[in-house]
Design brief:
heterotetramer; A: alpha/beta; 8-stranded mixed beta sheet; 3-stranded antiparallel beta sheet; 6 helices; C: alpha/beta; 3-stranded mixed beta sheet
Chain lengths: 233, 233, 219, 219
Amino acid sequence: MINKVVKNAKEALQGVEDSMTFMLGGFGLCGIPENCISELVELGTKDLTCISNNAGVDDFGLGLLLKKRQIKKMISSYVGENDEFERQMLSGELDVELIPQGTLAERCRATGAGIPAFYTPAGYGTEVAEGKETREFNGKMYVLEHAFNPEFAMVKAWKGDTSGNLIFKGTARNFNPMMAMAGKITIAEVEELVEVGELDPNQIHTPGIFVQRIFQGTNYEKRIEQKTVTPKS
Amino acid sequence: MINKVVKNAKEALQGVEDSMTFMLGGFGLCGIPENCISELVELGTKDLTCISNNAGVDDFGLGLLLKKRQIKKMISSYVGENDEFERQMLSGELDVELIPQGTLAERCRATGAGIPAFYTPAGYGTEVAEGKETREFNGKMYVLEHAFNPEFAMVKAWKGDTSGNLIFKGTARNFNPMMAMAGKITIAEVEELVEVGELDPNQIHTPGIFVQRIFQGTNYEKRIEQKTVTPKS
Amino acid sequence: MGLSKQQIAQRIAQELQHNWYVNLGIGIPTLVANYVPKNIDVEFQSENGLLGMGPFPIEGEEDADLINAGKQTVTILKGGSLFDSALSFAMIRGQHVQLTVLGAMEVAQNGDIANWKIPGKLVKGMGGAMDLVASAENIIVAMMHTNKAGESKILKSCSLPLTGVNCVKKVVTNLAVLEIKNNAFYLIERAPGVSVEEIKAATEGDLIIEGEIPEMKFE
Amino acid sequence: MGLSKQQIAQRIAQELQHNWYVNLGIGIPTLVANYVPKNIDVEFQSENGLLGMGPFPIEGEEDADLINAGKQTVTILKGGSLFDSALSFAMIRGQHVQLTVLGAMEVAQNGDIANWKIPGKLVKGMGGAMDLVASAENIIVAMMHTNKAGESKILKSCSLPLTGVNCVKKVVTNLAVLEIKNNAFYLIERAPGVSVEEIKAATEGDLIIEGEIPEMKFE
């Protein structure tokens, strides 16, 4: 069985350079590749284009890269909850491309699936469709959207095996599986790295074929952005 | 929780009429909705258009519907292994549309995912692309392919719960999940019907939202088309 | 004047039908889950990859790996399922979700909705709103009838950048229930104690008033 | 004359590289799995939804729910995975499979391949072949050099309906290993005991012979 294991984030990120385009999994702070992000901060790689549904918060997630001004452009669907982001966007330091969330997810999938372009109804008649081809199918209008072309994808899984097979947990799955499909080099960091044969092949969310490098992550914070609870009664 | 349970195939197929378009899951005889097919034979519904990767064998699977001349048109990727099929096709009784297998799978998914059309490289430069729009993306040529519009989808799962959540087994998964997404009415027959809460929500292959009717199947034959074995040593 | 946010949610909950899958946006729409009629089954979809969303967890049981689209910790009910964002939006785009409830800054009488961007102000993004409004067969907007300056949000045409076109079918505000058809707002119900004249005064778009307009009923 | 089918498979197995994912078509290509060099790891993908395909099951252990694309009962190795047809072809179309080996009726010197339809004869369908050849970066065709009538299948241009255009990079036949480039077949190796003249005689397409052509080596 093909072995994809690397020692740590440092080894996983070999080949990462300034001005590259990355995909980073996660929704809010849920399911983000914490170790990869820390290592990117460490590396200080600059002028990055980051495709990620959100942009983290001031002191966590992609917010850490924003703080060090390593990101040139964010491609996201929602980028609130981040003062530094706001400052850089308003000052023009940061380029931001906002994409409907479903279109973002489907474009990631298309990238990995060899689909160069597809039609979606999202954004028709809005400024999102400006400059894009639109077309009618069965009486409804659609917008033509294209695949991305990222150098690296960085995803976070719950469990993974040495061959790169991944299982996600709860809603930490979100964008991770499609982004795993889409990277020229896909790096998976996992909470628990196991031997091949320990995961049920019928329950694997991301087959190892999509993953080039996998490592056991460390020190997961897994921050909660909005703690909402029902009081004990 | 929403309850989708119907008593049996007879109840599940209510509303099925002549000249309708169906999707039927399965690859060869693996993972086919045996109970639904038997019930269609029983009903004698005619002039059907069937979207299915294969067309069964003479005395099993869709071959049973062919034998009773209930099918007007087959939309498939591969239709060998069936003498009656061959006879009807050569005599012109049966209309056959052959589609590359990946295109078939992706068109099924597109149908369920609200994607009216997408570009794929499969079939470019061949007769499959004749009359279809072709287009260049990044120096490579692609063909525009469209979603289907089936009235019913009939799928077979291993386990399902009363809310329509499905888990498939082995390679019996194949086309079933995408077809489950695509039916205006999707019928799932399962080897084991369980209560909600018995399936791990993290391991569900087809969420219940895609399934309108579910029933516990009976008398599964699960025939093997090509028994190949390694002799005991 | 008129309904509280809770009451707007309560009124919208009356629109729920048995066996519907429903996506609730952030804000007032989220409250709708608290008022599901006892005799019907509905399931809530959260576009970050969750069907069968349950109430907030008991204090101490919150899980960072189980949140809703508002990034709040939630629970999952028996019979729920988890999936990725592509499949989640396949559900939405493919019209498998029967009802979408979301907030808005402006709604126009042709069904246009604006709820994601105010020029000159900080833009946070549309999230899943554009996919939801472009896809749902059944969209209810939950909002206040007027803005803080007292100006109507029920308009002839939207002035803000659009989220979607010709898509809103129904609006429930603190003052009224409105149906959108024939390029106009049809007044269906009044909030208790609110007069037709008050609703007229708060509505900039064309308002059609046919016959006696009943008051909303709450149990 | 030349190689047996087993030997063709054996020669193709020499092309396998460490850590490659490989899709093997029906017929000779299937046999390649028997000759994987001991020092490399490869995984076989079957387009009906299986990665890490293993050998046929021990008699009595066959499972109707575990077949390959040829509908044969197979096994799954540790580290394998199961998935649906859409994800399977996402792997193929998205070029995650490093090598496709398949049979052909005709191959042309521009890389065109025909392997699915003979006009006037029964058409069984293309299955996954069109997706595979349109997508793979690396396609090896495994076939006999000539047909039963003794006519060359290595052609200037295909006469049969095409499966894909400009896609085949390498052909391994019972007589030779050929590389396709510059709109010609480059003779790379001869089958043991087969002369360049014999290969020339059996080849209709433009055949480029540069220097001494070595014989294939088998262990």
